[in-house]
Amino acid sequence: MLLLSPLSRAVALACLFMSAVQAQTPDDAAQPSSTVVVTATRGAKAVDKIPGAISVISQQELASQYLIADDPSQALATYVPGYSPSRQKMTSAGESLRGRQPLILLDGIPQSNPLRAGSREGYFADSAIIERIEVINGASAMQGMGATGGIINYITKTARADGTTHGLNVRASGQLRADNLDWKTGYNVTHKDGGFDLLAYVGMQRRGMGYDGNGRRLGIDNVQGDTLDSRGDDLFFKIGQRFGAQRIQLSLNRFKLRGDGDYKNEPGVVAAGVPTTSLPGRAPGEPPKNKVRSASLDYRHDELFGGAFSAQLFTHDFEALYGATAASTFQDVRLAPVGTLNDQSQIVADKRGARMTWVRPDMLVRGLEMTVGLDLLRDNTLQRLATTNRTWVPQLQFASNAPFAQLEYEFGPVTLRGGVRHEQARLTIDTYTTLAAYGNRQVQGGETEFSKSVKNIGAVWRFAPRWSAFVASSEGFGLPDVGLVLRGVNTEGKSVATLIDLKPIITRNNEVGVNWRGANGQVGVSRYDSRSKLGSVLRVSATGIGSVERVPTVVKGWEVSGDWRPVKALSVFGSYAVTDGKTAAAQGTPLDLSLNARAQGPDKGVLGANWQWAPKAQLRVQAAHLRDRDINIGRRIGTSNLEEHFKGYTLADMALTFESAYGRFGVSLENVLDKQYVGYYSQSSAALDAAGTYAGRGRTLALSWNRTW
């Protein structure tokens, strides 16, 4: 079926089942559809009417996972089958969705920085303000540029009930050692009076060091960034007012995460299998940090010309400082003798944008829904060396205007959907000079423009009271890591207009799936094929310098996930994902190289259960298994060694929560069996880096208390 064209598949599906659709009564077609998402369609839509694989992580699921580990990427790895294992670091390098990069949003505000992907977008808000997470698996253009792997939209909490409530939360975790206590506290107030609502939150967090299963202190990443030995704080504010069919809302988020700088990286011994560790002391320079400032003004009118209109104005200011290093890339004999110059990279990305959507049901004929809209984005990104104030990546001025339209037709148990989004983008770059390590080459600035229409088409057939099948084909629009391309120019006579590496990435995701949703559970199976003719692959040379190669990439895989409640007090959940990504050594050569750990995760299975053993108490147990992965044996390109080996492992966690008159108490154990392991990325991509083979956390105890009054 995957060999058929996307249009042929959708039309064939609709025609094949037309007679069955017309014969079914409305009662026969009815099925549970209580889960509603907004990310996939730009309007509220039940999941069983969306052609594609959708994951919705509820507030209750997030609360259980954040009790075990207050790590956003670990929550995604647990609940999203195609998401790769967490790095357990501030940096998210190597974390991907179905072998590609997802677009990360907070209430629709883009948090990702595709122009200079520094892998630090995973920490942008306190987990306490998140109500749910909506994940769209596979390439999509509905939410804008950068979603070649999918969309991850974090939805923040809103006051729901009339009156005023106050909430206090406290969490502490550790491994019974003097320097590894983590603690977090936050206070929130919510108020709702008719059409007026308000939510305010302030929180702070302090993290100590950690220890592996052998009782050895974990290695800290002083350069890329780490959550070990760090502190964070967040201030979030949301206020809204409804006027009949209209609502206006203002949201502000101020988040900061920074290292304390009390420990430094101590390399391990690769030949002996000894992982990296840490020693007390200060590394050179200022500790790494993330600083995020975002704001949005949202307006909605539910009865505008027979449809629902929504508009959002947003700003997002992001700043990431990396640790000091004497890397060969930073050396310049005009400033200091070779090998003595420590410098720090800093990425600054400021976004301004507007998003407008109008959804009109029963347009011209009953059952036909039309969605039209316009997205505007202005993104200014640069990367500099903070200590010496040198330009590493010049200011990238990106402007995008993207009108879109989508039609959805529903007749009986069949939903057909098709749409197009036209990306009109312009990238402006001033003339600049590369660093001395690249030969102080002058690159002529200028403008490069992109104009591309990306399409989606799909169908859902609810062929039985609790069953549905879907077929879909969708395209995503993205850019390669522009900053990485520009800073690596090492030959004379180059100009922005002639760099082929700046051409956009168009990814098409073809997918088929079947879902069952009943009163006591649900299960979904999907098979996908994701292709880009001009993909983007990061390859690292023997000297540690990364470069972008524009070669085709194909990612195929299948996923199964579900949950089941055999009795009222017990529910089980699980998922399994197989991901197989391939690329080529160069344009025109066979697709015979496996994607490395920087791009895709290993095959992964998750199994867990929730047992409500008392009216107000619940026990949760879960386990995740990562399969062995050995790829590209004996393969090299230039000085880049492509061979990788990964020995899989299984980790188990548990959490107990119970309600009382004094609040909600929780206790958890992460890595219950105290398994000694080295993380997936460290085993595979950083296997020969004595300073980058990081072990994972050993058994960790966490206690929490939450009370609302």
Question: What does this entry show, briefly?
Answer:
The protein is mostly beta strands and 709 residues long.
Describe the secondary-structure layout.
Blueprint: H1 6-16, H2 18-23, H3 26-29, E1 36-37, E2 45-46, E3 54-57, H4 59-68, H5 72-79, E4 102-106, E5 109-110, E6 130-137, E7 150-156, E8 163-174, E9 182-193, E10 196-207, E11 230-243, E12 246-259, E13 263-266, E14 277-280, E15 289-304, E16 307-321, E17 345-360, E18 368-385, E19 390-411, E20 414-429, E21 432-433, E22 442-443, E23 446-464, E24 467-478, H6 482-487, E25 505-518, E26 521-532, E27 537-540, E28 546-549, E29 553-567, E30 570-583, E31 593-594, E32 604-614, E33 617-626, E34 629-631, E35 636-637, E36 640-641, E37 644-646, E38 649-660, E39 663-670, H7 680-684, E40 700-708
Parallel strand pairs: 4-7
Antiparallel strand pairs: 1-2, 3-6, 4-5, 6-7, 8-9, 8-40, 9-10, 10-11, 11-12, 12-15, 13-14, 15-16, 16-17, 17-18, 18-19, 19-20, 20-23, 21-22, 23-24, 24-25, 25-26, 26-29, 27-28, 29-30, 30-31, 30-32, 32-33, 33-38, 34-37, 35-36, 38-39, 39-40
